[in-house]
């Protein structure tokens, strides 16, 4: 089981959208996936179609030791998810016991054989929830925007990552920095790319070759409780997230071969049955 946390202490960089989209892509290639929603806003839970009802079990109950993780997991069409809600926001003051940094890791060890991948959405703050995610994770993915303030967040995040590696999780690896809402026409974007490359060297990682552009489809997908791979599978964004997923896994993306139906050129927009993968 590979555990991947998507993190940046700066809000608005698209962590939740990236988590939901990667979960959808992993499911599409036949991997079993568990999404962990560590953000008290519960946006990942909503984006993947989790159910919300009174007295539901959430990660708050798990972190408090009231239940085990598998008791909180919901099954959706695209992946399993451990949901959260606003009650998680009070954990910083409630968790005071020794070993509180290892709660999530210990719970994930109980289901280590149930999933191929675990994707963790972290809150936009360096809290005990974030530390739990880092302690449990094998890989970190750090999304950022093409702006200076987003880059400043990376520098501050670096100190936390080094501290967690030293005290809680020596095998923690930054898998890569992802530039989200990418606009190649802006001069500032190019400058931020160059600076991000410098920070990535300090973190012993790299900036992903795949960039995620701005898209209306990506913004609409959460309202339908679907990842982009299901909501708009033929969109440019779905292609970008598919490429990103394969890059994260370190695998080459399969080439699409368009079937020719009789004479003439293939259709501009192919039907699913007309596409084969090699």
Characterize the structure shown:
By secondary structure, the chain is an alpha/beta fold. It has a single domain, classed as Rossmann fold, CATH 3.40.50.300. The chain has 12 helices and 10 strands. The strands form 2 sheets. An 8-stranded mixed sheet has the order 3-4-2-5-1-6-7-8, with helices on both faces. Strands 9-10 form a two-stranded antiparallel sheet. The model has no long low-confidence stretch (mean pLDDT 87).
Key descriptive features of the protein:
alpha/beta; Rossmann fold; 8-stranded mixed beta sheet; 10 strands; globular
Task: Furnish the topology, listing elements before pairings.
Blueprint: E1 2-6, H1 15-28, E2 33-37, H2 43-47, H3 59-63, H4 69-72, E3 74-75, E4 80-82, H5 91-94, H6 103-109, E5 117-121, H7 128-136, E6 139-145, H8 148-167, E7 173-182, H9 187-202, E8 212-213, H10 216-220, H11 228-231, H12 236-249, E9 256-258, E10 275-277
Parallel strand pairs: 1-5, 1-6, 2-4, 2-5, 6-7, 7-8
Antiparallel strand pairs: 3-4, 9-10
CATH C-level class is Alpha Beta
Distance between the termini: 26 Å
Q: Which percent band covers the strand fraction? A: 15-25%
Q: Which residues form runs of ≥5 with pLDDT under 50? A: none
């Amino acid at each position: 089981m590979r555990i991947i946390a998507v993190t940046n202490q700066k809000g608005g960089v698209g962590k939740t959208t990236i988590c939901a989209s990667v979960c959808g892509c992993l499911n599409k290639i036949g991997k079993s996936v568990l999404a962990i929603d560590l953000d008290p806003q519960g946006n990942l839970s909503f984006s993947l179609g989790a159910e919300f009802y009174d007295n539901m079990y959430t990660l708050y109950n798990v972190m408090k030791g009231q239940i085990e993780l598998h008791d909180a997991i919901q099954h959706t069409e695209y992946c399993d998810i451990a949901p959260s809600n606003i009650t998680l926001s009070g954990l910083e003051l409630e968790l005071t016991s020794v070993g509180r940094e290892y709660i999530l890791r210990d719970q994930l060890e109980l289901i280590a054989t149930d999933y191929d991948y675990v994707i963790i959405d972290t809150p936009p703050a360096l809290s005990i929830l974030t530390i739990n995610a880092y302690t449990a994770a094998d890989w970190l993915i750090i999304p950022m925007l093409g702006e200076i303030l987003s880059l400043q967040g990376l520098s501050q995040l670096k100190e936390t990552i080094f501290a967690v590696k030293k005290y809680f999780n020596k095998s923690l690896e930054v898998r890569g920095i992802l530039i989200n809402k990418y606009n190649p026409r802006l001069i500032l974007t190019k400058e931020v790319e160059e600076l991000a490359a410098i920070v990535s060297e300090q973190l012993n990682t790299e900036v992903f070759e795949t960039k995620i552009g701005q898209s209306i489809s990506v913004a609409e997908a959460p309202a339908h409780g679907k990842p982009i791979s299901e909501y708009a599978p033929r969109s440019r964004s779905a292609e970008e997230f598919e490429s990103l997923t394969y890059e994260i896994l370190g695998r080459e993306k399969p080439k699409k071969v368009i079937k020719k139906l009789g004479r003439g050129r293939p259709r501009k927009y192919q039907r699913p049955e007309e596409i084969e993968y090699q």
